[in-house]
Each structure stands twice: as C-alpha cells, then as structure tokens.
Amino acid sequence: MPRVVGIDPGTVSLDLVGLEDGRVWLDRTLPTREALDAPGRLLDLLTAQGPVDLIAGPSGYGLPLIRADRATDADFRLAFLAAEGESGGIGGLRRLARILTDAGLPMVFTPGVIHLPTVPACRKLNRVDLGTADKVAAAALGIWDQARRTGSPRKTSFILLELGGAFTAAIAVEGGAIVDGIGGTGGPPGWQSGGAWDGEVAFLAGAVTKEMLFRGGAETAPDGMAAYVEGAEKAVRALTAVARAPGEILLSGRMAAVPEIRETLAARLSGIAPVRDLAGFAGTAKQGAQGAAILADGLAGGPNAAITEAMRIGESAGTVLDYLRVITPADARRRLGLR
Known about the structure:
Elements: E1 3-9, E2 13-20, E3 23-31, H1 32-37, H2 39-47, E4 54-56, E5 66-67, H3 73-80, H4 91-102, E6 107-109, H5 133-150, E7 157-163, E8 168-174, E9 177-182, H6 199-205, H7 224-239, E10 248-252, H8 259-269, E11 275-277, H9 287-299, H10 305-311, H11 329-335
Parallel strand pairs: 1-4, 4-6, 7-10, 10-11
Antiparallel strand pairs: 1-2, 2-3, 5-6, 7-8, 8-9
Helix pairs in contact: 3-4, 5-9, 7-8, 9-10
C-alpha cells in the first residue's frame, strides 16, 4: 500500500497528514508563518519517519495535476498568483513549494476547482478562484466521508461550506464530482478577508494589491458576525441553483469550530439539507490536509483511487487565467511577469 502525505497550506496554519493503508502516521499542524520562516522543520517532519511514495503538496490556486519536479517557473507563478517580489497573500508559499521541490520529494501539485472538467465552462467565466486546491482536497474528504455510508463515491451529494481562518468558500458535489464552487476572493465575507469586491471599490482603491485581498473581513466590522453568517448562507443557497437537492451541508474549516458560528449556520441551513460537521479521521490536522492525503493515496493507486477517479483529478487541465474576459489572459500573464 502507498505511503503518502497531504499538505494544506492555510492562511493561519500549515497542516500535514500521512496515510498508509488507512492508518494515520502523521498528524501535525504548524503556524504558516513558522513553516515559511523555517522550512527545514517541515522537511524534517516529512522525512523523519522514512520515505514516502507521494505527497500532495502546497498548490495554492491549483495546477493541472503535475509532478513538482516538472513544474516550470510559469507554473509556480500561476499556482500562487504572485509576481516576483510580491510579499502579500500567499506569495511566500511559492518559495516554500520550491524548497520542497528542490529537496527531491515525490510531490505533485493538484488542481483548483477551475481546472476540473466536471465544472462546465459557463460557470468559469471571468473567474480565477472558484475554490483553491485545498478546497478541492476538503471536498475529497467530504466524498470519502459520505461514501462510507452510501457505498460509493459516485453516490455522494453535498455542498461543502469551508469556513477558513481568512476566507469562506463553498463547493457543490454531485455524483462524487465537483460541479461548481464559490471561492474565497470571489465569495462571501471571510473572517479576515472581505471576500468578493464591488468593482466600484476596486476603482476607488486605484490599485489593488494582493495584501488587500486578505483584509476587510468580518472581524473588522461592528456588525461583522451578521455579515459573515448571512454571507455564508447566501453562498450555499446560490449553489442550490446548480446542486438543487444536496444530500447534506458539510461544515469544515477553522471557524466552523466556533460554537456560535456553527450553531447559527446549522439553524439557517437546515431547511436546505441536514447540516453536519466534516470531522474526518485525523485528530489535529484540519480537513484540507486530510483530503490532500486522500488525493495522494488515490493518485498513488491506494484504497482511495475510486475517489480521485470520480473527481477526475487526472483530467484536470488549463490555467486559472483561461476564462478571463474583463481583462485578457495575456494581460493577466504580464501582471504576473510572464510572457
């Protein structure tokens, strides 16, 4: 059986889960800033207990499934959407991903929602972030969780509401595949991030930096909690236009563990479908890392191969810029310092 690791590089914490034949052998969390400042500690955690067959690495906004040692500079810039010298947002994760790649680890970068063939092109128009790679991984955990009761990944149906430390996102799953998503920078208010921007706000700002996308969230406003839970509910209800009868609403992410938030959302969403926490199988690491380990296991031919096949991870394609019309993909590439 393959021995694998999944990594979830969140805004607040970086989490790791190791799996071998369904057994958890690694379950850790590090502050993201600590992992960025001292990557040697992360390397030690990945190698201290022996070699691994595959790692689902930190993939940012995602890439079509690719081995890390084959990724180009353009791939790294597209995965983390940061030009050279950009310090805001998750730009620092690009350096960490390069360090892990240069260490010779058997690592792959995994797709975001926009790369998946199971999401029709009409739902991708003028979108970059329909759900980052870690949200795809969290959805994989949801499929694993529900498939234990339905008997097959292809019988799963839910909307995942991911309440991260910075962003809120929602993912719709039908028949074991992601069919749509509302991403953090295009979605409802997050705890730290303001979520989707009003275009007039962007105009008034004059210039929008990466750092600005990570601020202005619920924690900054006197009525922020009301905006936060109402926005999360709106995201779920919006996805019912696509997934009209979800079997469940699954809650995951750091903020879903806050009783006030969890209880309020459960009450507001229970009229759509039963609401349940996505607990997973690890005791420490958050859901994205657990899902990334499931993806790594499936891609390596392990027991979770039926999940990666249902999600069609191996058929992921394109770039996060392909569906832009407000600006051209070429303009976006130049902004990232690419030809």
